[in-house]
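Technical annex, item 7. During the second reporting period the consortium partners agreed on a shared format for inverse folding records so that results from different sites could be compared directly. Each record opens with the tokenized structure and is followed by the designed sequence. A conforming record, contributed by the partner at site C, is shown below for reference.
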């Protein structure tokens, strides 16, 4: 991402050496971390990281139920992708879909008792992986900095808080 004379217009603010170093390390983390978390969940819980996000979101919802559109928003998924994943989770008895009682045109996804047991069984290994690969690699000060950095990036990437507000504990 450095500029050559004929590479781009003059108004491009090329990354300096320290910015390039930070950017490339972030790209590496974004490439490596999902696969690492996915591998642990596949090995220990027979589910993908995305499957885990779906069932964990349902486990925290009132009545362990969410409208499919709300679940798609919480997982940043398209409805077709989410529908495919929920169908697979249904086949395993982890989730069931039913017509939404308030709007028969909408569909609810509900975590079954088997699904809740799967989340409860998967959570300790997932937390261990998050600790091992992220949290414990940082000092407490760096964890705070990471939260601040993520917040700053999310303000740009999600200015309406469509996804961000769902994960804000305050």
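Designed sequence (site C submission):
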């Amino acid at each position: 991402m450095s500029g050559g004379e004929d590479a781009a217009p003059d108004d491009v603010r090329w990354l300096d050496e320290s910015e390039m170093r930070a950017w490339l390390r972030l790209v590496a983390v974004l490439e490596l971390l999902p696969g690492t978390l996915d591998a642990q969940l596949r090995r220990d819980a027979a589910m993908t990281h995305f499957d885990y996000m779906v069932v964990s979101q349902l486990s925290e919802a009132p009545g362990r139920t969410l409208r499919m559109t709300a679940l798609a928003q919480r997982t940043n998924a398209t409805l077709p992708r989410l529908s495919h994943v929920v169908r697979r989770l249904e086949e395993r008895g982890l989730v069931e879909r039913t017509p939404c009682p308030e709007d028969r045109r909408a569909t609810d996804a509900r975590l079954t008792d088997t699904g809740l047991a799967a989340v409860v069984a998967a959570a300790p290994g997932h937390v261990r992986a998050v600790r091992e690969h992220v949290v414990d690699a940082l000092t407490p000060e760096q964890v705070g900095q990471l939260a601040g950095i993520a917040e700053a990036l999310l303000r740009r990437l999600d200015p309406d808080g469509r996804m961000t507000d769902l994960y804000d504990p305050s």
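The radius of gyration is 20 Å. The first strand starts at residue 65 and ends at 67. All partners now use this format for quarterly exchanges.
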